[in-house]
Write a structure and sequence with these properties.
Elements: H1 16-20, H2 33-46, H3 49-54, E1 71-83, E2 90-101, E3 108-120, E4 123-132
Antiparallel strand pairs: 1-2, 2-3, 3-4
The structure holds zinc ion (ZN).
Zinc ion binds at residues 3, 5, 7, 14-15, 38, 42.
């Protein structure tokens, strides 16, 4: 299976490393804000709600998160990034995430957002949406 984040890698060698190691002693963290953004998109695509909550900053994290099973996230475009590198503690990623209805695949829409991220210790966390278009 190709990774939902469109990196061109297989899911196993891309975002699954981060999503499936969650909570284990060998937990791996995405090294950059963009990598975290990609893994969160993949978590949306595969129904990984707990990964989404664990990569959300505690100050903005919702108490619970229910993913809509009819919403199939199938395409991610990274529009731009600022900061968010290996040696940064803050980063911004602009992206467009496309989804379609599982019941009617012709019903498609997309979400364009600029998100801010912070790094605490080794872990990048999603903070908030800066701009909703
Ligand atoms: Zn990926």
């Amino acid at each position: 299976m190709r990774c939902p984040c469109q990196s061109g890698e297989s899911y196993e060698h891309c975002c699954a490393k981060f999503i499936t190691s969650l909570g284990t002693a060998q937990q791996l963290y995405p090294p950059t804000a963009e990598a975290l953004m990609r893994s969160r998109f993949s978590a949306f695509a595969v129904g990984g709600a707990s990964y989404l909550l664990h990569t959300w900053h505690p100050s903005t994290r919702p108490a619970c998160l229910e993913l809509d099973p009819d919403q199939q996230w199938y395409l991610l475009e990274i529009l731009g990034t600022s900061g968010g590198g290996l040696f940064d503690t803050q980063g911004v990623v602009s992206f467009r995430a496309h989804y379609r209805s599982a019941a009617n695949r012709k019903l498609k829409d997309s979400l364009t957002e600029t998100s801010s991220f912070v790094r605490e210790e080794r872990q990048w966390l999603y903070m908030e949406a800066l701009e909703l278009l």
